[in-house]
# Entry
Amino acid sequence: MLKPYDLLENLLLDIENGIKNNINVSVLSKKYGFSEGHLSRLFRFAFKQSIAAYIRSRTLAVSLNDILETNTKIVDIAVEYGFEYEQSYIRTFKREFGITPGDLRKTRKIIQIKPPLHLFNEKRVDGGVLFGPDFVMVPRFQIIGKCHHISFEDPMDTESLLAKQFWENERKQIKETVNSNVYIGLTRNINWKKKYIEYTSSVQVKKLKSIPHGLCGCTFETSMCARFRYIGQHHNDINGNVVSMMYNDINKFAHNEQAKNLLLRQRIHFEMVDTRFYDENYCQIEWYTPVSEKQ
# Structure
């Protein structure tokens, strides 16, 4: 089983090398041993776009050279790039570029294309991949979960162990959940003097009512947030080395003098794990923290 960084890098190379060989999601899923649905979800999580749409855009972009630099008939170009009919190629081409292949050949208009995606080595985290940040508005939401005080001296994988325990036990007591497949780990009330954080293993709920004994409720207010996304190769939990490397990369951005935003992670932050995307080989995590503009 390839590590996530190598898998995604190979996928991008296979797409570029297979454009003239009718590369598609079905071919790629069989090669790497995933279902088409799982491969599509993994690609969308990593690159925030559909793999099928990306293949289509790259195919059309590569076909431009044949349109502009040769006299090959449009119908032959269509067939060369895997389109069954000339008209389907023309319609898809026009949706992508706003002009037909024939008109582009005549007018030689400048058009915008989708360039090939690339992974950069600085995104690699112990064989996994860390993307971000991108900036999103997170609407107000409420959670119910189990609150823990974690010492700064506790192992780095303490949070992941608590998350696993909550998911297997206390989660079952919580009613009227929202996105019941999504785990939320919320960190707040960081006490630098006493050297501990308050960490809540939780799920989102519709309302803060009927809170089971021993659990607590909390509200995250609407905030502009920086979001980081991580894909890693893990079975049940994330080891301390990976957690440490992730936070080191996030800290690099936090201390980047060129960045326009301040990460307010010392105040509150949370991670989300959608368990539907976990296949006992790869896991996907989103990490959010509110931001403010630098003065």
